[in-house]
Design goal:
- The chain has about 150 residues and is mostly helical.
- The chain contains 8 helices and no strands.
- Helix 5 crosses helix 7.
- The longest helix is centred in the middle third of the chain and has 25 residues.
- It is elongated.
- The chain starts with 5 loop residues before the first helix and ends in a 13-residue tail after the last helix.
């Protein structure tokens, strides 16, 4: 992300933070459109891999992750932007590969700021899980076998 040009960075940043500015209802609607069995992505997942997303726990997890991701992304991006470029240049002059530089220099330097990033969206995601669990308790979803009449 930091290596992209200003226009590309703005476009990618806009796409990654879009769920933060959309209402959760709109984001959920788009997820339903994407993962519906009548749409290409949902049909592919169901027919080829046997994965059904709509009206399952997997769908709840995906929805909560999509809603919470922009908050985590913003914190992590800010953490990586605060790294001193001179530190990276010094590591390169010492002959570090890009992979080694990331794991040994960049990640530890940004750790104090990005480590709490996954926890920051938890209150919002927690509310979503609370709603899901409450509706499940209200509706008392039962397996189909419990609805059958027992032979007398």
């Amino acid at each position: 992300m930091l290596r992209l040009g200003p226009k590309a960075r703005a476009a990618v940043d806009g796409v990654l933070t879009l769920p933060m500015v959309m209402a959760p209802t709109v984001a959920g609607f788009f997820l339903l459109l994407l993962f519906s069995l009548r749409r290409p992505v949902g049909a592919f997942l169901y027919e080829e891999m046997g994965i059904k997303v709509v009206q399952t726990w997997l769908g709840c997890i995906i929805a909560a992750s999509v809603i919470a991701f922009p908050l985590m992304y913003r914190n992590a991006r800010a953490a990586f932007e605060q790294i001193d470029p001179e530190l990276i240049y010094a590591a390169r002059t010492l002959g570090m590969s890009e992979t080694k530089l990331f794991w040994r220099v960049v990640l530890p330097a940004a750790a104090p700021a990005w480590l709490p990033a996954p926890c920051s969206p938890c209150p919002r995601t927690g509310r979503i899980w609370c709603h899901v669990l409450c509706w499940q308790a209200i509706l008392r979803v039962r397996p189909a076998r419990s609805l059958r009449r027992s032979p007398t």
